[in-house]
Amino acid sequence: MASSISAFLPPDFDPRRPVALIAGQGRYPALVAECVRAAGVPLRLVAMEDETAPELQAAFAENERTLIKVGQIGAMLKALKRFEAGYAIMAGQVSPRRLFSGLHPDLKALAILATLKRRNAETIFGAIAREIEDIGVRLLDARSFIDAHLASPGQMTKKKLGIDRDYVDHGLHIARECARLDIGQGCVVRKGTVLAVEAYEGTDEMIRRAGTLKTDECLYVKTVKARQDYRFDVPCFGLKTLESLDTAHIRAAVLEAGRVILIDKPAVLARADQLGIALFGAE
User: Fold this and answer.
1) For 66, which of 2, 79, 135, 249 could close a Cys bridge (C-beta 3.0–4.6 Å)?
2) Which stretches does DSSP call E strand in 85-244?
3) Which fold has domain 2-139?
4) Measured at the alpha carbon of residue 237, what is the angle toward residues 56 and 103, in degrees to the nearest 5?
């Protein structure tokens, strides 16, 4: 049953039990909500003040949603219990920096932070995941329900990649090594030379920096860690990144197939065709 809904759900997934969507910024949470509802699975919303889109909040009945301040982990756990959620899924960007040093961290959040020797997306969200599962709620793979929006193998756009495979392999190697070292999940390369790597500043700023250099035959690469925890920090590629590539005059991108999420895929591919940017899914 689970595999007929999504390849990323656990085999014992019970579609009668509510899924709680822990929603951050952007289109991604709304896309997940649409896909969960299309599958006929009951859905609840944990929204974050000044993060979750008001339109998404309005799409839920009052008794099926809750609004918390960023950093209120205790309040989030209480909401999951009140919803009698069997599962939770994280979607949308909420940076670890904001989660603990912005707005209103509660006692639970401060207690989690105090246990961490390293503070990055993996350690912070990993600790939150353990708290969620400790109350009997299973945190789902963030790709659940949105199989159709993952990067697919091979050419995804009308424009072909047109870059030597050796240079593509070099970009993939650099991106994977950066991910392994927890630096970031993307890079820009050109003919075997690394122009920029993604770090704390984020994708758009990294692309902007690369755009100040020689960009003919440049390639943007997005990948995942070898041991990626797909419950959180899954790499996404959307319209904003496409516009950044266009501004930087970078006309090719390689995304790891089955692992990078396109938000949302039909709109991204249509816009890429308009801009003349090649998107390729690497296996």
Assistant:
1) 79
2) 87-91, 138-139, 154-155, 186-190, 193-197, 218-222, 236-238
3) Rossmann fold (3.40.50)
4) 50
The Cα 191–Cα 168 span in angstroms is 9
CATH topology agreement for domains 2-139 and 150-282: no
The two beta strands, 87-91 and 19-23, are parallel
Residues 6+ apart with CB under 8 A from 63: none
Who's near 136: CB < 8 A, 6+ residues apart? Answer: none
Q: Taking the domains of the chain in order of start, what are their residue ranges?
A: 2-139, 150-282
Q: Give DSSP secondary structure letters for 203-259.
A: HHHHHHHHHTS--TTEEEEE---TT--TTS---EEEHHHHHHHHHTT--EEEEETTT
* Per-residue tens of pLDDT for the chain, all 283 residues: 677 899 999 999 999 999 999 999 999 999 999 999 999 999 999 999 988 999 999 999 999 999 998 878 899 999 999 999 999 999 998 754 555 455 466 667 667 666 776 666 677 778 888 899 999 999 999 999 999 999 999 999 999 999 999 999 999 999 999 999 988 899 999 999 999 999 888 899 999 999 999 889 999 999 998 888 899 878 999 999 999 999 999 999 999 999 999 999 999 999 999 999 999 999 8
Q: How many residues does the chain have?
A: 283
